[in-house]
């Protein structure tokens, strides 16, 4: 047999292993991702009495006392189990260590993954995207062991584990592009045609299978956005990207510090319950701080000012108005009728808003965000220019609370991710900047600004611009034309964050650590 024939056989065998892994491992990981999502819904239903979705992005209607009890109890139970898991049995390595070859034990990994979903469903402020990635990495190691896939005669185990971890992300969020870029941009740090095709194929299969189990819906509602980009939005993207780059770098630094200072002993037994209690107390007044960040991010995406919407061409549908966190925070019931809520809306004393034939009726019950007191619109109504100051204050409070509570949760010993919290911070920061920008350039909607901010801050906090851009665009199902301003913002953010992080590193290495 000639050398050429031998190489051809090896190449054919390698291609066969890749196809098998894409179909079989991708399907198994997709099933796992779908089941983890259903588990999240089940925990939310039991602990908080609601299930998150497009119509209810957060626990806004859950009684405050139940919110506090749920997250405190969830963090307490998880703290005890994690203590036993980390000190009485084989430890579960990180995904990066698993890619490097460290073995992930089976039942310990499964329990570790379930605990992450459990605390998020209970209301803990931390991302849930690490769980499906760890599950995917563990399944990939077993897949390689079972079929003896290794070395020159098969496919690289390191590549299989990395791609499988990315497929877990792609499956749970129906984001195959983000899953592929997570594998090649963050884990492998190496882009080749084979790795891209392998990663995209497995993530696509995982996303398809997961969606067939958990169903498909748009994760974030950005329908209150202008129909197309503008030259001024491009300028905003450049400036917002720079601001989000600096903030994202600080958030990355903070999360790294929190991760490095997790309790190593029995301190987790009181620190995690304490973190849960603090989260619960904050959630009494800021319910959108709970969970992985969906509610806080949607607050930014749903910031819609009808009085200037006509200039930008943005329109908020009745369904979007009903599900808006602003409506839910103000005590609105979300009863909506007729057509879209757009510019020129007016509210009467009963709390009903009419705009282009539409109405949004609140319960009148009110809340801490009492629009009737002059601090914000009447319960269930749309936002107005006269309340911009209060809108900015609520967004700023949400931003600060989400950042601090997430870092506290990680520091207390909880395991989880910061992808969705990063999107939440970017969305609220982008919305704040967009509200100010709107006065000078009303053709740019606040929702578009929030979209740009979400991608830009995530890019900085993850140091992965391609993954960040694709994940946000896939989660929002944004029009493809917005890849242009989002791409510019992500590029600006990546450069600024790199400069900020390099500066911090230089200060630390020269004996002047950043406090």
TrEMBL record:
Q: What is its main location?
A: membrane
Family matches, as CDD domains? ClC_like
Organism of origin: Bifidobacterium myosotis
Q: Which InterPro entries match?
A: Cl-channel_core (IPR014743), ClC (IPR001807), ClC-type_chloride_channel (IPR050368)
User: One GO molecular-function annotation for this sequence?
Assistant: chloride channel activity
Q: What cellular component GO annotations does this protein have?
A: chloride channel complex
Q: What is this protein called?
A: Chloride channel protein
What transmembrane ranges does the database entry give?
Answer: 15-41, 64-85, 159-184, 196-213, 233-251, 272-290, 388-410, 431-460, 480-501
Q: Which Gene3D superfamilies match?
A: Clc chloride channel
> Pfam family of this protein, just one?
Voltage_CLC
Q: Where in the cell is it found?
A: Membrane
Record keywords: Chloride, Chloride channel, Ion channel, Ion transport, Membrane, Transmembrane, Transmembrane helix, Transport
Mode of membrane association: Multi-pass membrane protein
